[in-house]
Design a protein that fits this description.
homodimer, alpha/beta, MgtE N-terminal fold, CBS-domain, Tetracycline Repressor, domain 2, four-stranded mixed β-sheet, three-stranded mixed β-sheet
Chain lengths: 450, 450
């Protein structure tokens, strides 16, 4: 694969020499997605010169892949006529995404460059939330009536050469309700004169327009679809979500979950943001952690008498806190990912909890025995301290799997993203509860057994 | 959408009544993917009865979606003839995955039921590692020569009704080298008599057979491809990877990274494994964490004199450890995800490090000041302790971003999965370094300033 990035020195030379013929040939060799990625590394003046060297079709494809900043700059810099053409002909889903980020003023200005029906399309798509099926869908699809022949259907496809997802045609009735889907392949395989309803797959898989994008992605993945038809609540077909957008959704949702689990508010392209913005995204959970840490500290202060009695207890706070946090994170991560992949839709919550509890008791028994033995062998404290450490470890790991499991499930129930629970939140809660268990138990044992 | 799970009571009744006619009608209404998911909840005897009610075509589609356990059971229970048919006609990539999990003995036995050319196909595909392009690809694709006409190409497609990814035909030269790709759509749009080389897209995006599956997924995502052609090192076309498998890869790689970050060895369907297996997967990193925690404890013991001098220092260990761990996890998560999404291929490592270091200094300055002030306000120790806590926090957060960033990059360089570093590994390292900084600094300040 060739990337424009590799050609940047060459492109700069060609631009300096005004050698646009060679530049055009060079650009023709490259994939629009590569040109788009390369364009972002060029100076504005160079971006404009490159964009001017592209054919209309290429220019539209490159434009679709660019970031908002470059898109806005180019639209303002090219001729009004070309800007109108690009906006009229770009993919309707990418176009709606672009418009959703602009100010009302800019939207009004750009609408003036466009055909009336394309403006109506943008207005229609902007009604839907960006993370729903409606926000993801394109209106570039082919819908036909069920009683036409397969040749007529193929002819209809021929007339719409620019439709992106041409591999399916959708079959609708008079009021536009979705009744079937037929692949281009099945149209070609059918005998001449066959009516569409005979080759179509009736009652196809579909999603409602206000459904969450994660569920759209899961539907496409489960049924191996190249495109998912989107309907209004009355079953009228209003758009389709294509598989390339599904991949983006799967990737974005995973990134979002991963960032949330690490306690940084997720944002696209965090690598490109300024350091101050990144600090702003990372600070909120750190403050929670800070407060939690100070509370933990005060718990130690509250138990100061115990600690003073045997300083050895302090040796084991890092291992108790560290292990509890890690076990809790493991549990909540497994539950959060299970929720994201739709696993828990078919499973009883009680069953999940009791499984994790069983795991916790087992992990607690193994690690508790181990740490108790080691404490005793390393002579980091007396036998009573070793006993207290072992039992505390057992209790705090059992509690950790419980807390790590129950919080994502509760968060899910109250419609908060469960991924948030699988990070600093769980570790902070477990730090506090772990310390309380440890010092209470140790205090009790030291008083009773010594 | 209908799921077989909802119909299970009905199906059981129909089986008891031997009412296979109604059962067959019911199954026809359902999507093969749904039947497959439902079958897993049935008893073996019922699974077999349902499978017998499916048409050959449906049976094959359902079989492809089942887990190994059900697949093996059904193959052993249905007639040898039908088993042979299912194996001969199922998708070549799913078939290779199935065979890769069987014992040599079973493979030999099943091969006897199959056509010779299909056996050869399995043997060929089993040569490739499962997480490479070769392990992911199917050999069900259409390859044509460049000088045939578009009608002949369409005719060739008609003759292969079972090929799954029919939306592209691949153009190869005499020795089988990939020279182009044409969409079914472009074949239909072209005038009669047009030779294939005029409508094909020459020199298409492709991947080598031994490339990692993550890179295959990234290629498909970047270029919005429905299928990625796979070549041997001499450019001979040997298979294609279809987009439904790409979605699975994106999802699996994200799950794997997420589990690794949480310090549990990743395994498919962790939710279905026995508790003992899950404990086994989770214990290894916990042991590391255990050792790390005990080392941390010994560090406190080493500094015991200091601790004894001012017990107040112990109050702040939780906040120092917790904050360092969280900041480190944030940094390594951002870096790990950046690596997974291919972001760092275009960026200098030095640049990444200096960005994260800048972030760390800023986070450290803010949180260090804050915790110092709070320590002083809450009167959890004297002014010197507050100063020591603030400065230690600043140092340990700055170090945390450095360590959190450098480890994934080093791991990547030495070909270890960087995701491993973004979990218990980083927190354990930071616990130890954080405590050393804190106690050394506090000891020094207490000695000097008091």
């Amino acid at each position: 694969m060739k990337s424009l990035a590799l050609f940047i020195p060459e492109i700069r030379n060609l631009l300096t020499d005004n050698n646009y013929t060679v530049l055009k040939d060079l650009l023709k060799e490259l994939h629009p997605a590569d040109i788009a990625r390369g364009v972002e590394d060029l100076e504005p003046k160079e971006q404009l010169a490159v964009f001017k060297c592209l054919s209309d079709e290429e220019a539209i494809q490159v434009f679709e892949e660019l970031d908002l900043k470059e898109q806005s700059f180019l639209l303002d810099s090219i001729s009004r006529e070309r800007a109108g053409k690009v906006l009229d002909e770009m993919a309707s889903d990418d176009r709606a995404d672009f418009f959703s980020e602009l100010s009302d003023e800019t939207v009004t200005r750009l609408f003036k460059l466009m055909k009336r029906e394309e403006v109506a399309d943008v207005v229609q798509l902007l009604k839907y939330e960006s993370d729903t099926a409606g926000g993801l869908m394109t209106t570039d699809y082919i819908a036909l009536r069920e009683n036409i022949t397969v040749e007529a259907a193929v002819e209809a496809i021929r007339k719409r050469p620019k439709v992106e997802m041409i591999h399916y045609v959708y079959v609708v009735d008079e009021p536009g309700h979705l009744v079937g889907v037929a692949s281009l392949h099945s149209l070609i395989l059918a005998k001449e004169g066959t009516p569409l309803f005979e080759v179509m797959y009736p009652d196809p898989i579909r999603v409602k327009v206000d459904i969450d994008q994660e569920e759209v992605a899961r539907t496409a993945a489960n049924y191996d679809l190249l495109a998912v038809p989107v309907i209004e609540h009355d079953n009228r077909l209003v758009g389709i979500v294509t598989v390339d957008d599904i991949i983006d959704v799967v990737e974005k949702e995973a990134t979002e979950d991963i960032y949330r689990m690490a306690g940084t508010v997720s944002e696209d392209d965090v690598h490109k943001k300024s350091i101050f913005r990144v600090v702003g995204l990372r600070l909120p959970w750190l403050f929670t952690c800070l407060i939690g840490g100070l509370i933990s500290g005060n718990i130690i202060r509250f138990f100061e008498i115990t600690l003073d009695e045997t300083i050895a207890l302090a040796f084991f706070t890092p291992v108790i806190l560290g292990m509890g946090g890690n076990v809790g994170i493991q549990s909540s991560t497994i539950v959060v990912r299970g929720i994201a992949l739709g696993y828990f839709e078919r499973v009883q919550i009680f069953w999940v909890l009791s499984r994790e509890m069983g795991t916790g008791l087992l992990l607690g028994a193994i690690c508790g025995t181990l740490v108790g033995l080691m404490a005793s062998l390393l002579q980091m404290g007396g036998e009573v301290v070793a006993l207290a450490v072992g039992i505390s470890m057992f209790c705090s790991l059992s509690l950790a799997t419980f807390i790590g499991t129950i919080f994502p499930l509760i968060f899910k129930r109250i419609n908060v993203d469960p991924a948030i629970s699988a990070g600093p939140f769980v570790t902070t809660v477990l730090d506090i509860t772990g310390l309380i268990i440890y010092f209470t138990l140790a205090g009790f044992l030291l008083k009773t057994l010594n």
